[in-house]
Amino acid sequence: MNDGRISAACKVDAVLITDPYNLRYYSGFRGGEGSLFITENSRILITDSRYTEAAGKETDFEVREMSASRTETSILAEVIAKEKIKTVGFEDRYMKVSNYQNYCRKLPDIQWIGLGEKLEEKRKIKNEAEITLLRKAEAIGDLAFSEILNYIRPGVTELSIAAELEYSMKKHGAEGFSFSTICASGVHSSMPHAIPDEKKIENGDFVTMDFGCIYHGYCSDMTRTVVVGNADEKQKEIYQLVLSANLAVLDRIRPGMVCKDADKIARDIITEGGYGKCFGHGLGHSVGLYIHEKPALNTKDETVLKPGMIETVEPGIYIPGRYGVRIEDMIVITEDGYENFTKSEKRLIEL
């Protein structure tokens, strides 16, 4: 998805990429284990024998096989000597200190320059091919949600609901999951990232399900909260407040808006409703090859939204020891507003 000009853009002689998500983004290689070495004249993918055949089919990079006798650093040394490379940019926000020390020891004449978030910058705006895959990934989540509604009832456990959601997503084409599926019921729903356990669903429980799948490498993310049985008036009030915050953001979000201003729309509504202290996380985040990408819709991010950026809109209210509600959609910013990938019902569902 890129070429040797990335090194010039980063103002170094070469770039070494080892993060699996950047590895895939810039080369198309899905294996996740190996490295890319990009110079003005070379585009090299270094991996081992488990992946070389697949790599040759998935990328137009030159594939070089490493082994015990022909190590990654020895391959790098050959290219460095041939092209007289002096400076190499690396992913200082990802690379382990021990790996960095090994590169410095084995390649002592190189000046290593941390790239910060430069490689991720291009990933913020998705192209049409990426948007198509993200849209499909979210559609799989919608199918799973429609099916799980027939499964949720008193007596089933959070673990079994999470398992059914994952089975459904796999059945509809998911290759994996964006993150560990969350199913939080009753008092557990007051914890935004509760871990499902053997707790059985009871009448009157809120059941919050946060889940997503991977489709051709790209992630989806959605959350829906339902009630088992009839909701009481307080539950209806909390749910409606969260839904109002979600809808208000969708009514106003657009290209040119600053990320933190989108967060403020939802936060002001929840605060005015008396539950500001119960909304502790940011409004949302970008999604792509990785589930939590940038920019984020939170109180600090001053990124200006642009067409092609993917964002989640997920306000929530969590009352410790009682219950919680979260509603999450995944959208793409367009030239004149946004497209919502998440089609599942958002009215309060009572099962």
Full CATH superfamily name of the largest domain: Creatinase/methionine aminopeptidase superfamily
Look up the CATH topology of the largest domain. Answer: Creatine Amidinohydrolase
Largest sheet: 6 strands, mixed
Overall average pLDDT: 96
Which residues form runs of ≥5 with pLDDT under 50?
none
The percentage of residues in β strands lies in 15-25%
Query: Cα distance, first to last residue?
Result: 46 Å
CATH class category of the largest domain: Alpha Beta
The assigned CATH architecture of the largest domain is: Alpha-Beta Complex
Alpha plus pi helix count: 10
What sort of overall outline do the alpha carbons produce when their principal axes are compared? elongated
Summarize the amount of helix as a percent range. 25-40%
Rg on CA atoms, Å: 23 Å
**Strand order, largest beta sheet:** 4-3-2-1-5-6
Task: Please indicate the count of domains.
Answer: 2
Count the E strands: 19
List SSEs in N-to-C order: HEHEEHEHEHEHHHEEEEEEHHEEEEEEE
Protein structure class? alpha+beta
